[in-house]
Amino acid sequence: MAEEQARSEAEGDVLPWTVAEFYRGQSVLLTGGSGFVGRVLLEKLLFYCPDIDTVYVLLRPRKGLSVQERLHKLLDVPLFDRVRAQRPEALGRLQVVEGDSAQPGLALAEADARVLAERVSVVFHLAASVRFDDPLITAVRINACATRDLLELATRMTKLKAFVHVSTTFCNVGQREFEEKLYPVAGDWRSILALVEAQGQNDPVALRALTTKILGPYCNTYTFSKNLAEHIVDHYSDRLPVGILRPSVVVATARDPFPGWIDNFNGPTGLMVGAGKGVVHTGYSDPNSYIDYVPCDIVVKGIVLCSCEVARKGLGPPLVYQGAQAGMQRITQGRVLDIAHEACAELPFSDSLYYPCGRMTSNYLLFLVQFFFFHLVPAVIVDALLSATGRKPMLIRLQRRIYSAMTKLSFFVLQSWDFSNKRFLGLEKRLRPEDREGFCYQLENIVPEAFFRDALRGTRRFLVKELDSNLPQAIRAYKRKRLIHLILKTLFYATIIWIILSTLHFLLFAE
């Protein structure tokens, strides 16, 4: 089987079915369906697989909303406008299942588990905690224990054809170049899961004290727990057809269903909004390092194609795919910042606090100095004014969060990473002609300047909720703030020059 797979990858054999044919009459289980990637995947399945039987979405009640209400809310966004307009009947194929990845056994009712075991043929496991500062018990419980519990459920699925686990390219350490294969496990995953499940209930304080020792070379609990999860998937590969897809930095959609869809402030998006709002003026990262970003819709295409390939492969070691650019559109972080500044001139935010003029540095001492003068000092002044006018101060608290986010991201943005994606691109090469419109990546055709401009436009519309009709007014405000910035900048440098000249005059002519 392994030799046959290697031969097909080398020769570029086409898939034995179109995607629509593969999913005809099949039932799918999706975890993480309320997340960014999960919702884009859900939309693609509903739109491009018209004869899919049922899509079960695992959700938990949250913020006073039932699972049915949560499903309605996650569908009530522009992302699903295409489905509502062209395939409204597809929405009737959705069924919500109440569960919780943070609880033992996914908190599934046995009746629901039986239905899933009898009907599901494809599982997409996307549910994860992506917070870098989660306690070890939380990260391992959601990212590793839940993976094991879902795989255990999958062993009961009599019709299972593919189990696709979505991981991350950053789940391995010790080097900067990574291939599409499993790397050494972070630890004995059975012992770690047992420790978390036992100590987490009996003595969580002791577990927190042991966290640094358990993590070893891993910089946070997220990357550590995702590494464990990959090896749990591998453990079940002799009983289940499994595959692993590792995205790099997932950003807004490039094309499908439209350019610029984004629904969260995670990662670079939050910092981009902060900079555009005039709150972030310095960043702790290397402007000369390369960033490996991948549009969300391309990740989703890879996930779907991975399920088809896993079904063809069957049992055996998991196929590992890295959804990454891998140098196809290499771009430095400094260039991304320049593009963002250029885009902000065309698509500024309406209520920005100051003119967007942030820069980045890899010098930690310089970063601290800039953060103090450009972040903390203005925050103290603004919060004092807010307090004086009877309003709630907020900027100092926000700057604490910005500083925390920058330091947590520093491990990833102070160096360049190289993720091989040969096998990931091979999926695209084996597409049937009928699937090229819906599932072709076309990574080589993505123009960074146009892509990030679309991403900023989507951020204005879908995250900040600004109307396009307000854009002329926002541009006028942007120009006013730029003028104020130039005046203040000129006054600042003039003051510095005056101080220097005055000091020199005193030293040279004082008696």
TrEMBL record:
Gene Ontology BP annotations: long-chain fatty-acyl-CoA metabolic process
GO MF terms held by the record: alcohol-forming long-chain fatty acyl-CoA reductase activity; alcohol-forming very long-chain fatty acyl-CoA reductase activity
Family annotation (CDD domains): FAR-N_SDR_e, FAR_C
Annotated membrane topology: Multi-pass membrane protein
InterPro entries per the UniProt record, alphabetical: FAR, FAR_C, FAR_NAD-bd, NAD(P)-bd_dom_sf
Catalytic function, reaction form: a long-chain fatty acyl-CoA + 2 NADPH + 2 H(+) = a long-chain primary fatty alcohol + 2 NADP(+) + CoA
Top-rank lineage group of the source organism: Eukaryota
Top-tier EC class: oxidoreductase
Catalytic activity, EC: 1.2.1.84
Residues of the Thioester reductase (TE) domain: 30-303
Cellular component GO terms held in the UniProt record: membrane; peroxisome
Cellular localisation: Membrane
Residue ranges constituting the Fatty acyl-CoA reductase C-terminal domain according to the UniProt record: 374-466
Transmembrane intervals: 364-386, 486-510
Family: Belongs to the fatty acyl-CoA reductase family.
Function according to Swiss-Prot or TrEMBL: Catalyzes the reduction of fatty acyl-CoA to fatty alcohols.
PANTHER family reported in the protein's UniProt record: FATTY ACYL-COA REDUCTASE, MALE STERILITY PROTEIN 2-RELATED
Name of protein: Fatty acyl-CoA reductase
Provenance organism: Gryllus longicercus
